[in-house]
Amino acid sequence: MIDEITPGKQVGNQADLTNPARRELLFASAALAGGAALAGAPPLAAPPSVRRDALTSPPTTPFVVALPVYGAKAPVTALVPAPGRTPTGQEAGRAAHQRATEFAPQKLYELRVRPLSHSFHPELPTQIMWGYDGMLPGPTFAARYGEPVLVRIFNDLPSNHVGIGSPEISTHLHNAHSASESDGYPGDYYSATKAGPTLLYPGRYKDHLYPNCYAGFDQYRPSGDAREALGTLWYHDHRHDFTAQNVYRGLAGFYLLFDALDSGNENDSNLNALRLPSGIGRYDIGLAIDDRQFDSGGYLAFDQFDTDGLLGDKMMVNGKVQPFFSVQRRKYRFRLLNAGLARFYQLFLTRAGVPQSFTYIANDGNLLPAPLTMSSFRLGSAERADLVIDFSLFPLGTKLVLENRLEQVNGRGPTGNLLTPGMPLMRFDVDAEPPVPDASRVPAVLRQQPPINMAEVVRTRTFRFNRTNSVWTVNGLLFDLFSTSIQVKRGSAEIWVLQGSTGWHHPVHIHLEEGRILSRNGKPPPPHERGRKDVFVLEPGEEVKVFMRFRDFVGKYVMHCHNLTHEDHAMMLRFDVVP
Known about the structure:
Layout: E1 10-11, E2 14-15, H1 20-39, E3 49-50, E4 107-118, E5 127-132, E6 138-144, E7 149-155, E8 171-174, E9 205-210, E10 232-237, H2 243-248, E11 252-258, E12 284-294, E13 300-302, E14 314-317, E15 320-321, E16 324-328, E17 331-338, E18 345-351, E19 354-356, E20 358-363, E21 366-374, E22 376-379, E23 384-390, E24 399-406, E25 418-432, E26 457-468, E27 471-474, E28 487-489, E29 492-499, E30 506-510, E31 515-520, E32 532-533, E33 535-538, E34 543-550, E35 555-561, H3 564-568, E36 572-578
């Protein structure tokens, strides 16, 4: 297989390019594919295989596995050696932490990336995945604005791993307002023996300093502007060329942020607190949704040569195929995340096939100014939506299904057709009364939005996400780890015009800052997109104008398509924030 990859040839739809990183990806992929073909049926607890043929997963019985839910991850009392502004001990060679004294960590965490033996469903074989702290999904962080934290992320993956993925990691907290050296830049990957090209040297771990400050902190001292708050974030691997494989293998988890308004306490005595349903893992539940493909033996499969975007035929939530979740007759807050690689969802909550209404309170982790009553919504890759569902409206014994009705047959994106019935993702079983009266609420006013001041805008830039000579590009160019023609001045605002290509959907993610959609094809965005966002879905040929600010930190960041296959095949752009 390796002999087939020579300069100028094509591997599937992906041109073999001459830059070293692209060669690394293609040669590794070829070797993996050849190894999988020779290995035959994998043994128990085998890693994901690389398969090029069309597959159909074995049948599985829905709603026999309980939904995994987690409480908040606990901090540690100390790290040895103690973290410093510059790398310490066996830490990888990162840049010095910006504003380390100002945002000195108040809590410390240790996070270990390691293999785990995972069961997606009792009717599928157990297999080797990767997870933060050996969990799939990873542990849930609960942080607060005004309390900086430092997370020491160890890479305990085996260097001699088999199957898809890269044993080097670079963790991105999506979409934290963090300095560049803690953002998970794609070239900042590391292991004990290997360093990415934008690090100085390898290391067993890397310290990430998360300031947990409101964006625009410098403008609104001393405490920042609470209108800039996020709530539902997630973290995932961002290793250059291998993001899709590493995320598919399990490297993702939730990171939740609270403040005085969204306090995480439904019994809060503060009169200004929202008192939304609370209790992480109890009444405040993260739902990481994705799709995966299995081979005839029930082992996870991944087609490295499909550059359009991988679709699976098994729907899962929190790492389980079509689980069920027992709920009480009261309100719950669900934080839904599309953690998949390429699939879009149009989600409905149904009872005996009939859609039910719910309350939509946040988009991409940002609370809206006011709640919306909805019966369905769409999620592109990496988009989030916070919902409140009031199960007190249903009698005991009711079963409700979260289902996807959006048709999608390939990585181009959805066809637009809605299917009835849809594909069930999970079931809610209303089977108990709450032990105490429900004190939670959904107030008529949530979080006000910061103003859009067009007088701040210093320039307008246009970015076209397209397919050029069979490869994914931004403005006709492939991603370059080392250089950029895009420099933005810290403290400035710009309008970024995002343009989609004919026939393809691209969920575009911009690091560092939330943006505000000014228009979609010249028209105002729909109500649920009128808050702050960090993923901007481009439908075929669509143009979206976004108001962006760049504040508080400097350094290298990226904008990319969050169809992770497109990202790994160079649909990404570096921009630098400069003083």
